[in-house]
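Late entry, written up from scratch paper. The run itself happened at the end of the previous shift, but nothing got recorded in the book at the time, so transcribing now.
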Amino acid sequence: MKLKGLLGTTVIFLIYRWMTLTFRHGDGNVYLYAGHVLTQGILPYRDYVFADPPILPFVIGFLDVVTHRVVLAYLFLPIVLEAANALLIATLLKRWKSNFYWLAPAVYLFSLPILRTSDHLQGSQLTVFFSLLGIMLWDTNKPLLSGISWALGCLTKLYLVPAYAGFLLAAYLSKRKNLIKKLLIGSLATLIVILLPFLLLAPQNFFRDVILFPLLRQAEFSKLTILGNYARDAWPLLIVGLIGILRLPQPIIVFPLLVLTIFFLLFKDIFYIYVVTVHWYVVTLCVLLVGNLKKKWMQWGLVGAFLIYLGWSLYQYQTKFIDYSRFDNAQAVAAYFKKQPDTLPLYGFHELTPLLALLADRRVYNNVVDTHPQLFATHMLDRDTISQSASRDGVYLLYLEQLFPDGSRFRSLDGTFFSKKIFDQSCTHQTDIPISRSTDDVVIGIYRCSSTPLSR
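Output as recorded:
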């Protein structure tokens, strides 16, 4: 019965997320294009700026080959990963003799932080998967494989490194520290095998993109706001989880959580989806505490409180967050480009352009797939050089714009990834297409840029 409930909860989550799945604009679209061009021999670091380790593009590239570029399959990946994460949490809890292991998938999958982030392809879900798998493999006396899994997680997102450090500390303090050598061998071998080709082909670019850029970039959002948003979304679980830490000091869980939390408190530039990486630790501690309570009325009272929280989470998601960054007109924009007689590449807002290039079967200009303002502010990319060459060669330039009743428009990130001067000289407005079917004032502004004189 418990197994059926556990699996049933996971299936319900998958069905619910499939029903709400849609295209969205966001940083995750950069990974989609990076994975696609990887199958064509176009490599990150060597051929274009890519400010992340390479594992996620490898995974997307594999899906690109297997599905023959069914983009929605890529977008379903983080949802499937979260379902797998929930099952891994339950499996760990069962190994640790928790009678309430079956509760974990529901508390994890339908909590507001996971509902908000589980359909955004950012790599955090894959990072959590590898860390969970690493702990599972360690717990089943497979230190070499555990080291490999942790290394794959760190090569997905570098912010997992502090959690791995906490895990190593817990392993060292355990009665099994004689296995740490195999753990480290697995991690080191994985790092060498995956990174060596990039270090041989473009060592300076790799160091600049993956190591230097995160240290140079400035904070985009208030750290207190980001942490406060997570606390607001998960406060009942945080309270129970804190009690769980005090009553059940499980080092293999607590040490990675504490070190990762300290890192987020100290690092200057964090995002909500980064912070949600700690969520599985919190849920695990909550469920462990339920099973550790002596009186049944306390156990089931806490289960009831969790169910109330999950109902609140679903309500909050449905009313406040489900439409966030929706891009359900993506196919309509792609259809516009498919109708054009030219083969000009696309260039523009990084949250939109890579996805549209995939859907419209067009190139991103010079593979400048990520036009995040921080890349220009830190001189990783040169705006004027790109603008000059793009206008000379010819591109479609894409902006996210707000239209106003008086006919004026606000162009998001105007002047950050394309020179205003060159824009005025070389670009003509082609059309506006609403980003969503539910609104007509937020549009994708499409411009054709060429040094050849154009009629206006």
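Residues 122 and 256 are 21 Å apart (CA to CA).
(Scratch paper discarded after transcription.)
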